Amino acid sequence: SILMPKLDYSPIILIQDTTKLTREEWLEARRQGIGGSDAAIVMEESPWKTKADLYLDKLGLAPDTDDENWVQKEIGKLLEPLIARIFEKKTGFHIVDTHAMYQHPIYPFMIADIDYLIQFDDGTYGILECKHTERYNLGEWENDSQPYHYTLQGAHYMSVLNLDKLYFACLYGNSENDFLRRYMERDYELEQQLILEELDFWQNYVQKKTAPPFGGKTDLALASLRRRYRGNADADAIKLTQPEAQMLLEALELKKQKSELEKQVKTLDERIKHCYVPIMDRMGDSCKAVYDMGDGKQELVATWNPYSRKTVTADNIEKLQLHYPSIYKKYVTDSAYRRFDVKLKTKPKAKGAQQGKTAA
Fold first, then answer.
1. Are 9 and 118 in contact (CB under 8 A)?
2. Distance of alpha carbon 15 from alpha carbon 12, whole angstroms
3. Three-state DSSP class for residue 128
4. Dist CA 34 CA 15 (whole Å)
5. Which residues contact 206 (CB under 8 A, 6 or more apart)?
6. Same domain, 143 and 190
7. Around Cβ 188, how many Cβ atoms within 10 Å?
8. 161: closest CA among 105, 199, 123?
């Protein structure tokens, strides 16, 4: 049965102080259940990972790859105490530092490693999650909301700790004014949906050691496959089934349609540029041109602003290798990748058939 509202329980303290663990010990502890940051992955709402990635991680089978986002994660971790202090100063709430790893007493596969507890004036507690983002991500925080994958993380934490209130505190600059605060109340309907999905993932995939099918965002699935399979030129060719072949034939047809549409786009781009040329010639060194639309509301504005960026040409890379080989070796890396392609090819005639034709 699924957890019902106002059920009275307290979380189990699985680990008293996670700061005493090595990173490997902490990662191993996280593999014993589904954490808050895993919730969005299970719900196929994560911007970064698939359920297949999470499955491999829980079994300790995830491929060793360089984490592209390690700097952002490290910055976020280092800023947590500062963000908590800003939140405390702005709200007057008392922040309680906790290093425990909690476990749900009814659903033991649900674990939580929260940032802080909040003690309210009436003696009750809530959860504080500290986030750091860049200004260009502020659209995800509009209308007093937060990114949905954080909402799922919050729902997971409130379920494990049996608390009804959670705050997200987000810093997006280097000033306490560059700060967002979002309040989230416990949503039992969302929580029950989350528990069902996490229960299914844990029982039917992790415990049975059966990989989940790919779902959700296809770009994440492709990135996951590229991380997992590096390629072996000596491996035997895979014999496809008829349904698999049909999928690839459909892909070829879609590529053909895409090619036709791209030709149309190219034609439209050419027409757009044709409109730009005389206006840019008329502007010369001026960076702005205007036209009053005559309705008292709008004006047409064209801008041609100068921009600059640093680039390295292939010729200069080659010169760097010739004249400064040690610097080249230190800072230039070769990126290996695999390219997936589909073609419909004419099969070569079998030798036996060719010989028979010659003999005739």
1. no
2. 9
3. strand
4. 15
5. 55, 58, 59
6. yes
7. 17
8. 105
Residue of 202, 174, 214, 176 whose CA lies nearest to 85:
176
Together in a domain, 187 and 297:
no
pLDDT of residue 241: 96
pLDDT, one tens digit per residue, over 28-60 is 999 999 999 999 999 999 999 999 999 999 999
CB 35 within 8 A of CB 113: yes
Q: Which domain holds residue 37?
A: 12-226
**DSSP code of residue 110:** B
Residues 204 and 287 in one domain: no
**CA–CA separation, 355 and 360 (whole Å):** 9
Q: Residue 244 burial (CB < 10 Å; 0-12/13-18/19+)?
A: exposed
At 283-312, the pLDDT tens digits run 899 899 999 989 988 889 999 988 777 778
Lowest mean pLDDT among 72-86, 103-117, 250-264: 72-86
Side chain identity at 259, as an amino acid letter?
Answer: S
246: tokens are: 């049909």
In CATH, what number is assigned to the domain containing residue 175? 3.90.320.10
Number of domains in the chain: 2
Q: Assess if residue 231 is contained within a domain.
A: no
**Tokens of residue 273, six digits:** 């540029």
Count other Cβ atoms within 10 Å, centred on residue 211.
13
State the DSSP H helix or E strand holding residue 243, giving kind and residue range, or none if neither. helix 242-283
Separation of alpha carbons 242 and 123, rounded Å: 65
Residues 172 and 290 in one domain: no
287, part of any domain: yes
| Residue from 202, 190, 212, 201 nearest 2 by CA | 190
- Annotate 109-119 with b (16+ C-beta within 10 A) or e (fewer): bbbbbbbbbbe
Residues 19 and 109 in one domain: yes
Is position 250 within any domain? Answer: yes
Pair (197, 256) in one structural domain: no
Calculate the CA 360 to chain-centre distance: 64
210 and 66 co-located in one domain: yes
Q: Which one, of 240, 194, 268, lies nearest residue 39 by Cα?
A: 194
Specify whether 30 is located in the same domain as 161: yes
The amino acid that residue 236 corresponds to is D
